[in-house]
Amino acid sequence: MSNHPPRATKAKPASDPVLAGFRKSIDNIDAALIHMLAERFRITQAVGEYKAKTALPPADPEREERQIARLRKLSVEADLDPEFSEKFLRFIIDEVIRHHERARS
């Protein structure tokens, strides 16, 4: 006779319908994020080309700070970690600036 308690039967993640539903929603959100980022970068590419033609600098630190403050506020309202949001936005801004610098050269 074993002294161990009986093991609970666990469903495999792949066959768990609740988990599958959550994952489907996550997959849909991920796809939407990719499409939205692609559209955002199409627009910022046009901005970079415009800045290059008009001799404007690739970066606009004042706008960046306003955007970060705005998105941190939105994050708090949406119950999302504002530190995460700022890191995410900084990553995007850095990539956009890199594209703008490339368009200028």
Which features would summarize this protein structure in a list?
0% strand, 105 residues, Chorismate Mutase Domain, subunit A, single chain
What does the model show?
It is an enzyme of class 5 (isomerase). With 105 residues, the protein is mostly helical. It has a single domain, classed as Chorismate Mutase Domain, subunit A. The longest helix is centred in the middle third of the chain and has 37 residues. The protein starts with 16 loop residues before the first helix and ends with a helix. 3% of the residues are buried. The model has no long low-confidence stretch (mean pLDDT 90).
Distance between the termini: 77 Å
What is the helix content? over 70%
User: In terms of structural class, how would the helical and strand content be classed?
Assistant: mainly alpha
CATH superfamily: Chorismate mutase
Q: What is the CA-atom radius of gyration, in angstroms? A: 22 Å
Q: Kindly give the count of domains.
A: 1
The CATH topology turns out to be: Chorismate Mutase Domain, subunit A
Tell me the major beta sheet: none
Number of DSSP E strands: 0
Question: CATH class, anyone?
Answer: Mainly Alpha
Give unreliable regions as ranges.
none
Order of helices and strands: HHH
Oligomer: single chain
The residue-averaged pLDDT reads 90
* Total helical segments: 3
Strand content: under 5%
